[in-house]
Design a protein that fits this description.
CATH superfamily of the largest domain: MetI-like
Main location: membrane
Largest sheet: 2 strands, antiparallel
Membrane topology: Multi-pass membrane protein
Distance between the termini: 67 Å
CATH architecture of the largest domain: Orthogonal Bundle
Strand order of the largest sheet: 1-2
Helix content: over 70%
Subcellular location: Cell membrane
Structural class: mainly alpha
Organism: Borborobacter arsenicus
Transmembrane segments: 21-46, 81-106, 118-138, 176-195, 216-234, 274-294
CATH topology of the largest domain: MetI-like fold
């Protein structure tokens, strides 16, 4: 009798374990996701719809959509949005063209030079803070390497990160230097997976190298290009580290991005409710753009 009860209990436990094993294995990851992602998101939505006083003794007041309506008339927000879009277009566009060009060059002519490929990928392995400090030293007006080269070539010295006309260009150059290897790596992997038969058939038909690139390489690489552009655009829209260290948003707010403005609103102006509203705007805009971009790429196929 005791043995039969034990067997039934063991079978029931086995069935319960098989039924709930997936849930048990996912529970730690779900707990981490709930703690680090879902709860902060809910808290941010709650903060964006309230009015939080810097004085912790004062109660929070419900504000509804007032914080979001401020976005329509906030000139600093408009400046940050415009600068973010300008940076994203020029930085990501340049990184894509350089990354694709380097991948085509190394895939066709320098396939065996693995050491060169490793060197090209080194910048993206560095911490963004280290990259920002390095380029800050390079752009230093009096003792920077760049101005020393300009002096040796007999060219006029520049303030670079401190010039209103060159500040955004300087930030773009630093970002391109760090993240072009990321696009290069994705493009190189995509080129390595291309089939040879269509190219052999095109060569027999007399198609030029440019025609093969336009009619074969680009269509084959479209999924990889979509991934590279989407990841880089999403990352560029939240640029903070590089601008914070390199220019601080100046001069004259020429490099102030939305992420930097969120930081200033939250910690310098002590307005966390409005900072949460701007953060939600950036989040929803990024999600909307990503959804639209993915749908367009699917329709293009």
């Amino acid at each position: 009798m005791t043995v039969s009860v034990g067997v039934k209990f063991g079978n029931s436990f086995e069935r319960w374990r098989e039924r709930h094993l997936r849930v048990l294995m996912l529970a730690p990851a779900m707990l981490v996701l709930l703690t680090l992602t879902i709860f902060p998101s809910i808290y941010m939505i709650f903060a964006a719809t309230t009015r939080i006083s810097p004085n912790p003794n004062l109660p929070w007041q419900f504000a509804g959509v007032d914080n979001f309506l401020r976005l329509l008339t906030d000139e600093q927000f408009h400046v940050g949005l415009w600068n973010t879009l300008i940076f994203t277009v020029f930085a990501v566009g340049t990184e894509f063209l350089l990354g694709l060009g380097l991948a085509l060059l190394l895939d066709r002519y320098i396939r065996r030079m693995n050491f060169l490929k490793t060197v090209l990928m080194l910048p993206m392995m560095l911490p963004p803070v280290a990259v920002a400090i390095t380029w800050k030293l390079i752009y230093e007006p009096q003792f920077g390497v760049l101005n020393e080269i300009m002096f040796q070539l007999g060219l006029p010295l520049q303030a670079w990160a401190g010039d209103v006309n060159l500040a955004m260009f300087s930030v773009v150059v630093a970002d391109v230097w760090q993240w072009t290897p990321f696009v290069f790596l994705l493009m190189l992997a995509g080129l390595a997976s291309l089939p040879n038969e269509p190219y052999e058939a095109a060569a027999i038909d007399g198609a030029s190298a440019w025609r093969q690139f336009w009619d074969l390489t680009l269509p084959f690489l479209k999924p990889v290009i979509a991934i590279a552009l989407l990841l880089r655009i999403m990352d560029a829209l939240r640029l903070f580290d590089l601008v914070f260290i390199l220019t601080g948003g100046g001069p004259a707010d020429r490099t102030k991005t939305l992420s930097l403005y969120i930081y200033q609103v939250a910690y310098r102006f002590a307005d966390p409710s409005y900072a949460a509203a701007i953060s939600l705007f950036v989040l929803f805009a990024t999600v909307a753009f990503s959804t639209w971009f993915i749908k367009r790429m699917r329709l293009a196929d």
